[in-house]
Amino acid sequence: MARVLIAGESWITQSTHIKGVDSFVTSSYVEGVAPLRTALTSRGHEVAHLPAHLVPSDFPDDRAALEAYDVVVLSDIGANSVQLAPSVFEGARPGGDRLAALRDWVDAGGGLLMVGGYLSFTGFEAKAAYRNTVLHEVLPVDLLPEDDRVELPAGARGQVTADHPALGGVDGEWPLLLGYNRVRPRPATEVVATIGDDPLIAVGTYGEGRSAVFTSDCSPHWAPPEFCEQWPGYADVFGGLIDWLAA
């Protein structure tokens, strides 16, 4: 059993309703973590979820705090949210460098998984911005300097390219995915699944630890229900990634 921290995979939406000359605003809070959390807990892993709005205040501040976990998953949460604690961003007081702490924790034996989305890797309008941080060196892939999203409205299927334990023994045809973040493999990277000509799942090592990427999403919209809710292989893939990262 691995102790897993998932950071991100939630959002708050505001909608403006205009009815003639009158208007009003409604707000809603949504979590997209359910498919991933269910898949991992079904395989016996202990999962803690840190929603996106709590990441700035509650993400582990140092390597010692990260020792509570075996694997950290960053999913659809940008570098700014991890780095800029309220005391730093709002109070202008020096604080810990959380991404440097995460890098050092992986170097000492931790496991890191980044899952794709609009605020993963480089992200929408380059706002995820991990390329400019120390965490970039930990990932098994190089990130693009520009918006890296590849939208696939007609869908495309992941293709297994290597027999690797990180795939969890998944078998058969994959359901369609509707997009991903484009990345480039590094020389020592093992690309174990592709989408189009690009990496979908890539794994590597960093110091004594391990890192992996899943460049599409773990929930809608890039991961339709047929992929993240109805496909048995979903739990195989993400369970295999966590097992490998925690080994």
TrEMBL record:
SUPFAM superfamilies per record: Class I glutamine amidotransferase-like
- Which organism does this sequence originate in? Prauserella isguenensis
Q: What is this protein called?
A: Putative membrane protein
Gene3D superfamilies to which the protein is assigned, alphabetical:
3.40.50.880
Q: Where is the signal peptide?
A: none
Q: Which InterPro entries match?
A: Class_I_gatase-like, GATase1-like
Residue ranges of the Putative glutamine amidotransferase domain? 3-246
